[in-house]
Design brief:
Elements: H1 2-41, H2 53-67, H3 72-92, H4 99-130, H5 135-146, H6 150-156, H7 164-192, H8 197-207, H9 211-225, H10 229-243, H11 245-262, H12 285-303, H13 310-335, H14 339-343, H15 347-375
Helix pairs in contact: 1-2, 1-3, 1-13, 2-13, 3-12, 3-13, 4-5, 4-8, 4-10, 4-15, 5-6, 5-7, 5-15, 7-8, 7-9, 7-15, 8-9, 8-10, 8-15, 9-10, 9-13
Length: 376
């Protein structure tokens, strides 16, 4: 009984500490929604300019962070919104899919995702050599671009004995180029893939770095084009990339051990984390929850859809909750982007990250356009 009370007290204390920052994210998200609605209606006699509320929220957050700054009291709540609220929203996107629909999208997206992954890994090694970027940093840039952004960087870093500075550089590049792609690629998808929301979602899901950035881009496209199917397709495509980390981490560990044995490198060299320090799960929990919600939707449709309006109403409540959580989480993502940190990296890692990201984006676009051409 006392242990339950202690856990409840700790949870309430954590929530109270996160409340101010969470309130800031919610306030900016609501303001962004109102701003997007005003632009779409052409308020004040201005021309109508439809703009996604999520794009407004991210841009507002970035401007706020780099002009007014984020106060210390808001940091914990914003981190909670990015790490918890956003991932709950991503998991709830699974309610938009059934197993049959997810399988069909996955079969279409798999060759694109696999090709982009192989290209990123090969390009990361080659470009790092050309630009004299450290091998481990180049690998982190490639993994972060090809798999699942910051999560992949943090998970891979101790496995390949990366230094803390290399990890920080890679995370910063993922944030920078992933956010740029999140804001730019929805317009690319709208131009080249406007006839098929599913293929637009596959492009966004295979071309952009982090899961949060993929969801943000898919929301922008879905809201701009009134095509909610793009969000579900992007989520499935990103899920395929996330699952690849379960293979890449053990493979990287084996290759690192072989490299160290060949060069007689000590296993616990000073200044590098030990292999056992990796505490990030191979498959993130929100990915498993996403799959679980697909199962829930499939079972619910089979058992309850024909027995009244209750099940569809519950699914719609899930849609609403997902949209709210994603909007608040993406606002927090915008508030986390510091332009000052970007320019401290140096031009070589930035150039390597930009080239890898551009190659992956171009590969994804060409292959997805090819799939759309053959499908039609």
């Amino acid at each position: 009984m006392r242990s339950l009370q202690r856990v409840s007290l700790l949870g309430w204390t954590a929530l109270r500490a996160a409340a101010p920052g969470l309130a800031l994210a919610i306030a900016l998200a609501l303001f962004a929604r109102g701003m997007a609605a005003s632009l779409a209606d052409g308020i004040g006699g201005l021309p109508k300019f439809p703009l996604s509320p999520v794009m407004c929220a991210v841009v507002l957050g970035m401007l706020w962070r780099n002009t007014l700054g984020v106060p210390l009291w808001a940091t914990r709540g914003l981190n909670w919104a990015m790490q918890r609220l956003l991932r709950i929203g991503i998991a709830l996107v699974g309610l938009r899919l059934t197993l049959s629909g997810a399988t069909a999208i996955a079969a279409t997206a798999l060759p694109v995702a696999a090709s982009c992954l192989l290209l990123a890994l090969g390009a990361g090694v080659a470009i790092s050599r050309v630009l004299a970027v450290p091998r481990r940093l180049g690998l982190l840039l490639a993994i972060g671009t090809a798999v699942c952004g910051c999560t992949a960087v943090v998970a891979m870093s101790p496995v390949i004995r990366a230094r803390h500075a290399e990890t920080a550089f890679a995370v910063t590049c993922v944030v920078l180029f992933g956010c740029l792609a999140m804001l730019f690629y929805p317009w690319v998808a709208g131009h080249f893939l406007a006839g098929s929301p599913v293929h637009a979602g596959i492009f966004l899901g295979t071309a952009i770095h982090d899961t949060s950035q993929v969801i943000g881009a898919a929301l922008i496209y879905s809201q701009q084009a009134a095509a909610p199917a793009a969000l579900a397709a992007a989520s499935v495509a990103k899920l395929l990339r996330n699952l690849s980390i379960a293979v890449l981490i053990p493979l990287a560990a084996w290759l690192t051990q072989r490299h160290e044995a060949r060069h007689a490198a000590p296993a616990g060299a000073a200044g590098t984390p030990a292999l056992a320090a990796a505490r990030v799960p191979l498959v993130p929990l929100f990915v498993l929850a996403f799959i679980g919600f697909i199962g829930v939707r499939t079972a619910g449709d089979a058992l309850f859809a024909a027995h009244g309006p209750l099940w569809p109403a519950l699914v719609n409540r899930g849609y609403t909750a997902s949209d709210v959580f994603l909007s608040c989480g993406m606002t927090a993502v915008g508030l986390s982007v510091s332009f000052t940190d970007m320019w401290r990296i140096g031009w070589r890692p930035l150039a390597a990250g930009f080239i890898i990201a551009t190659l992956v984006g171009g590969c994804s676009l060409l292959l997805t356009c090819g799939l759309l051409h053959f499908a039609t």
